[in-house]
Amino acid sequence: MRALELLNYLAALDDEGELTPLGSIMAEFPLDPQLAKILIVSPEFKVSNEILTITAMLSVPNIWLRPPNQRAAAHQAKAMLTVPEGDHLTLLNVFNSYYQNKSDRNWAWNNFVSARALAQAEKVRAQLLRNMEKFEVDCISLEDEQNRNTAIRQALVCGFFMQIAHREGEKGSYLTVKDNQVVAFHPSCGLNAQPEWVLFNEFVLTKRPYIRTVSEVQPEWLSQYAPVYFDLSTFPNGETKKALQRVANKRRGYPENGQKKRVVPTNEPRKSDNPVP
Predict the structure, then answer these.
(1) Looking at the structure, do residues 242 and 216 belong to the same domain, yes or no?
(2) Is residue 262 part of a domain?
(3) 29-87 pLDDT tens trace
(4) Residue 51 sits in the same domain as residue 115
(5) Residue 243 and residue 229: Cα distance in Å, rounded?
(6) Of 84, 108, 174, 206, which has the most beta carbons under 10 Å away?
(7) In-domain check, residue 256
(8) Which residues form the Helicase-associated domain (predicted)?
(9) Are residues 132 and 209 both part of a single domain?
(10) Do both 146 and 169 map to the same domain?
(11) Range of the domain at 143
(12) Could you tell me if 24 and 120 lie in one domain?
């Protein structure tokens, strides 16, 4: 039922359970439905070239190497490749750096990343590019880096909107949306800060619940790109709903209490403190 619900929210299935035109294209990609959806809609954000790379990187085993006797060096090398906004952009940066170094295995070894996983990502990317060409999905990029990084994270919301977590308090714990699971960032996460809202790829349960492959998102993107899922009337009461309600009130011009201030028209007389008798 959860899988059917996901496909319905992704607009891959209609209310009768039949494939939509979008769902038919998604089914032709050898990917999880969420990744397929992101890849297909990415030209709308003009970052399909980057989303293609990120999708390929998410489709291969873990790229990071941590030799027991070189953990400090591996940590330092990873920090040099890390992008502050999140792990998805970091994966893109690693692949682009590897490509710019002409797929040099020595570069991969010196930066403690798996040359085998990166070579596999190259093959996956080439295969997915052929699928994109088959269905005339344009492969384009934005020029400005800051706008590009924002657009990439917006595109990710279109597929992973069910995997959003909200920070609870200042102790570093997060609460997943709707499921209300208390989670923390996995040690492999590259985010230095603790943004209020994050998107994650994996839920990992070891000694405690973790979320892995995490990127910062803005709350207004949630209702903008997944309005059906983020319909507040369907949300359970709690801190996450309150936080989303505050965002909705702010967009509509309401203050924190949800009551809109009355604006006195310029042609309406104001009450004087000392009215003339």
Answers:
(1) yes
(2) no
(3) 999 999 999 999 999 999 999 999 999 999 999 999 999 999 999 999 999 999 999 99
(4) yes
(5) 16
(6) 174
(7) no
(8) 2-92
(9) no
(10) no
(11) 2-160
(12) yes
DSSP 43: G
Query: Is residue 18 in some structural domain?
Result: yes
Query: Within this chain, do residues 139 and 168 fall inside the same structural domain, yes or no?
Result: no
Contact 200, 165 (CB under 8 A): yes
- 């009450």: which residue's tokens? 271
CB 58 within 8 A of CB 91: yes
Is the domain of 113 the same as that of 197?
no
CA distance 115 to 108: 6
Q: For 230-266, what is each residue's pLDDT tens digit? A: 998 888 787 788 888 888 888 777 665 555 544 445 4
pLDDT score, position 262: 47
H helices of the chain, in order, are 2-9, 21-26, 33-41, 48-58, 71-81, 87-100, 105-110, 115-134, 145-160, 219-225, 239-251
Q: How far apart are CA 210 and CA 203, in angstroms?
A: 6
Chain centroid to CA 61: how far? Answer: 19
What contacts 43, CB < 8 A, 6 or more positions away?
A: 137, 138, 139, 140
In angstroms, the first-to-last Cα distance of the chain is: 72
How many domains would you assign to the chain?
A: 2
Pick from 18, 37, 64, 277: nearest CA to 190: 64
Give pTM, 2 decimals. 0.88
Q: Looking at the domain assignment, is residue 197 inside a domain? A: yes
CA torsion sign for 260, 261, 267, 269 is positive
